[in-house]
């Protein structure tokens, strides 16, 4: 799929993140593929997925384009979403349409640079790069170093971005006015109304995860409310 085709496909449409880590009840590629199929039936036009195994299973089951990432924790480093070229190599084997990676200003493991990793992906594949950022400075940095689109994934999850229960509407609004590449709203979108608001603020597309695909969190929102 060409860059133009992918960017147009997601425009004003819903991307669903189907992720269950090892410590989560729904962990497993077969389950994630079923979750992705359900998301497709509900109108998702692309899936965000963690690990080569899950990406492969989701692609086979849904035929939807996939934004792939590989979460890996390196000791003494905060960057965990596709941190190094090693994770990129593992992802490229299963040919996701897009690779999502941490594109914050933070140091990466092994002194690798964002610029090198983005060039590495572009030089070795047709894969696009989604830069996961947490604030405006990250977004400028990521854009300068060549990512194809921005996602607000990490707002609230770096030491220098605001902690809040709501999605970061302000960041989406600011970036949508300033950015020269598509801005995807991601992180803590809990309701259809919040999703709609993101588009009103100028988001190119949105990613919804836990509110659709993490039933333990959905259940908790009910049980907390009725306590
Ligand atoms: C911060 C971080 O590691 N976010 C991860 C990124 O891939 C996922 O765990 C989230 O589920 C995803 O960003 C979607 O967000 P939400 O599940 O809030 O709709």
UniProtKB/TrEMBL annotation:
The EC number(s) this enzyme carries: 5.1.3.9
Keyword Ribosomal protein: no
Catalytic activity: an N-acyl-D-glucosamine 6-phosphate = an N-acyl-D-mannosamine 6-phosphate
Pathway of action: Amino-sugar metabolism; N-acetylneuraminate degradation; D-fructose 6-phosphate from N-acetylneuraminate: step 3/5
Keywords: Carbohydrate metabolism, Isomerase
GO molecular function, one term: N-acylglucosamine-6-phosphate 2-epimerase activity
Pfam family, one: NanE
Superkingdom: Bacteria
Enzyme superclass (EC): isomerase
NCBIfam families in alphabetical order: PRK01130.1 (NF002231)
Cited function: Converts N-acetylmannosamine-6-phosphate (ManNAc-6-P) to N-acetylglucosamine-6-phosphate (GlcNAc-6-P).
Sequence similarity: Belongs to the NanE family.
The protein's name: Putative N-acetylmannosamine-6-phosphate 2-epimerase
Originating gene: nanE
């Amino acid at each position: 799929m060409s860059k133009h085709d992918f960017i147009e496909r997601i425009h004003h449409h819903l991307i669903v993140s189907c992720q269950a880590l090892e410590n989560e009840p729904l962990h497993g590629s077969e389950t994630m593929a079923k979750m992705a199929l359900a998301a497709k039936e509900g109108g998702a036009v692309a899936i965000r997925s963690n690990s080569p195994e899950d990406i492969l299973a989701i692609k086979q089951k849904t035929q939807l384009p996939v934004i792939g990432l590989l979460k890996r924790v390196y000791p003494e480093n905060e960057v965990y979403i596709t941190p190094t070229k090693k994770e990129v190599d593992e992802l490229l084997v299963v040919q996701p349409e897009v690779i999502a990676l941490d594109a914050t200003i933070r140091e990466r493991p092994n002194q690798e640079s964002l610029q090198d990793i983005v060039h590495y992906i572009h030089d070795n594949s047709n894969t696009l790069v989604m830069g996961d950022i947490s604030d405006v400075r990250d977004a400028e940095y990521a854009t300068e170093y060549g990512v194809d689109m921005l996602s607000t994934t990490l707002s609230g999850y770096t030491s220098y971005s605001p902690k809040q229960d709501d999605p970061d509407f302000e960041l989406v609004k600011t970036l949508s006015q300033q950015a020269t590449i598509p801005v995807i709203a991601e992180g803590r979108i809990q309701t259809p109304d919040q999703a709609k608001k993101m588009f009103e603020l100028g988001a190119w597309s949105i990613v919804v995860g836990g509110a659709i695909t993490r039933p333990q969190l959905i259940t908790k929102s009910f049980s907390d409310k009725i306590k």
